[in-house]
Structures are given as C-alpha cells and as structure tokens.
Amino acid sequence: MKKPHSFYIGLMSGTSLDGIDAVLAQIGPNGETSALDAVSAPFSLELRKALFELQSPGANELHREKQAGNALALAYAEAVDQLLKQSRLQPSDITAIGAHGQTIRHQPHLGDMAYTHQTLNAALLAEKTGIDVIADFRSRDLAAGGNGAPLVPAFHAQQFVEDKNLAILNIGGIANLTLLPKDGEVTGFDCGPGNMLMDAWIHEHQGNAYDENGQWALQGKVNEMLLTKMLAEIFFAKAPPKSTGRDDFHLAWLQEKIEGENFLAEDVQATLLHLTAHSALEALAHHAPQTQKLIVCGGGARNNALMNLFRVKSQHFFKSPLEITTSDSSGIDPQLVEGLAFAWLAWAHKEKRPANLPAVTGAKGPRVLGACYPA
Questions:
Q1: What is the DSSP letter of 28?
Q2: In this structure, what is the dihedral angle of CA atoms 356, 361, 366, 369, given to the nearest 10 degrees?
Q3: What is the C-alpha separation between 265 and 237, in angstroms, rounded?
Q4: Are 109 and 359 in contact (CB under 8 A)?
Q5: Distances, alpha carbon 233 to alpha carbons 13, 109, 159, 192, in Å
Q6: Which pLDDT score is estimated for 90?
Q7: What is the predicted pLDDT for the residue at 4?
Q8: N or C, which end of the chain has less CB nearby within 10 Å?
Q9: What is the mean predicted confidence (pLDDT) over 208-223?
Q10: Which of 270, 301, 279, 302 is nearest to 205 (CA)?
C-alpha cells in the first residue's frame, strides 16, 4: 500500500542575507513535490547585521554566533507560524521542517579537518513550532569526503524532467549549476558569485539591499580589464566538484581588485553583472556544451538585466541557440525553488533515502543527510 502525500515545510535563508523563504510542500511517496503556499519574510536589520558580521572572525565570536542562531530560530518560527495560519494548517499536519540555517563558514578543502557551519538553534525551532526539524544537511556529505554543497541538484533531477539536455542555474548569493543530460550522469557545482558581490557593492554605495532589475548596473559600462582580472580568480579554473561562498567572494575581495583604480561605482556594478553571467555561461559551455535549455531560478531570475544579458552572452558561448527561461515555465516560482528543495531534503531524511550526489559533491558515496530534532 502506497503512503499518502505528506506536508513538509522548507526554510531557506541564503548567502544574500535578504531574508527567509518558507515553503509549504506536498510530497508524494516517490518524492514528487509541489509547492502549495509560501511566505517570504525579510530579516530584521539587527539579525542581518549580526549574521553579516559573523562572516569574518571577530571578538566574542562564539557568543555572538550562538545568539544569532537563537535569533534565526525565532525568525524561522515566526515564518512557520505565519505560513501555517495562511494555509489554515496545524503543526500536527506537518511531517517535518527542513531548515538550512545560515552559512557562517564553509571550508571543504581541508581534508580530514574540513568543516562547514550553518548557524541555527534547531532544537529551539522544534520547541517553538512543535514540529520535527531536520537541519545540518551538509555535514554528513563533508564527513564522506564531499564538499557538502551544492545539495539541490538531487532535487533538481527529481523536479525538472524534459526530453532535452537541460541545465538548472540557481542564482542566490552564490550561483550553482545542475547539469541534467538526456543520457548520462547528473552533475553539478557552484560556478561563482551570483548576487553576492552585486548586493555588497550597491549596499556599500547606495545602502540598498540589492539592485532591483539591475537598473543601477545598466547605468554603467562594463570594464573589460576589471572583468578579466576578476575572472582570473583561481576558483573559476578549478574542476568540479567544487563549492564556494563568502569565504572566497566578499566585498574585501572586490576592493582588492579595484585598488588604485578610479572606476565609477556604476561601472563596477555593470562589470559585476557581467561577471555573474559570464562565469555561469562559461562554466556551462565548458562542462555541458550540448545543453539545449537553461532554467534559471533563485533571486537572480527576477533581475531582468541579468536575464537579458544571459540571452545576449549565450550566443558567444554556444553554437546552437540556447533556450533560456525561468522556473516559472515549470510551474515553480524561482524564489521558492531552494525552499522547496529543503522540504524535499527533509522528506528524504525521514524516508532514510540518500540525498547527496557523489558526482556533484565528491563524496565517497550516497549518504542520508541531516540531523533530526524531534518536536
């Protein structure tokens, strides 16, 4: 007898530090997943500041990190409560919450001493919501010799199925690719900074959290010398499996690249827009030149200037026209794909199904991901 569909909640707050996406998912016995409802909640200024400051070493760091983990759990709990009320459901209706937490450090290249840390008091979240919480998804893959990231390709492979050579590009703070060939193994990897550097630069100069529709970038002109300098970063030349984060790409990294130069701020923003598009398309063309269709998700899919740039630049990287669309075309709001993925990862944990892809992360083999904090 087949199990009935179950309700899960996925919680995602990415490296952009813009806020929380809470997604109510219905998941069937074979992992078929659909989004039923969603809530997006911005971080308070205090929480965003606390999480941002933890991205680099500082005084009394352990205490501040634990306080931020508590504050994040409370913010997650508020988002869950709002989602339940909006959906007219009770905590008892939800099988589990899948919560990614907020990445503070990601150091997968240290051999047996490798580590990754996503701050979150998952026990407090379980206590406040009355729902089982599955968290700490990356550590098990890392223990098996993997990068611990990206984790969403397994979900992409389940969710996006077409009779084409397909690629999924998620553009959050970091951009990552999932390669779904018609015939062959599913692979994927982080391909560079997504919104992270653009967000950091506009916040530094205008105080805005992000460049809406790339309007500020469109006021500038790309500086080819600066673009070449940034593309020379060693990460771009690394072969997959690979992952990255704020440990590699941050405001100080950018400032070092422009030190001593008299660039207009809007020209730097325009160049960062090109960096995101160029690095993703170059990686896609190098590792999957047969790709016929690219589906873009994440916050970057809502940046019209970036999406238009993908279409223009793709002509230089691909001999045949590359169909480029957003996950809207597959019936999923681009902003909700990652939240939906973490609901699915919670389902996989509950079902004791491995959810990493060794070809993506470099792990020794498939592993059941996450740790359970019962309500």
A1: -
A2: -40
A3: 27
A4: no
A5: 26, 17, 33, 10
A6: 97
A7: 66
A8: N
A9: 96
A10: 270
Distance separating alpha carbons of residues 21 and 254, to the nearest angstrom: 28
pLDDT in tens, 171-184: 999 999 999 999 99
Name, in order, each residue with C-beta under 8 angstroms of 44's C-beta and a sequence gap of 6 or more.
75
Kindly provide the residue ranges of all beta strands, DSSP E only, lying in the chain, ordered along the sequence: 6-12, 19-27, 33-42, 94-99, 102-107, 115-119, 133-135, 166-171, 174-180, 187-193, 293-297, 323-326, 371-373
Q: Is 138 exposed, middle or buried (0-12, 13-18, 19+ CB in 10 A)?
A: buried
Amino acid letter for position 305:
A
Whole-number Å distance between alpha carbons of 290 and 182: 10
Structure tokens at 53: 């400051």
In tens, the pLDDT along 62-98 reads 999 999 999 999 999 999 999 999 999 999 999 999 9
pLDDT for 101 beyond 80: yes
Q: CA-CA distance, 211 to 229, in Å (whole number)?
A: 23
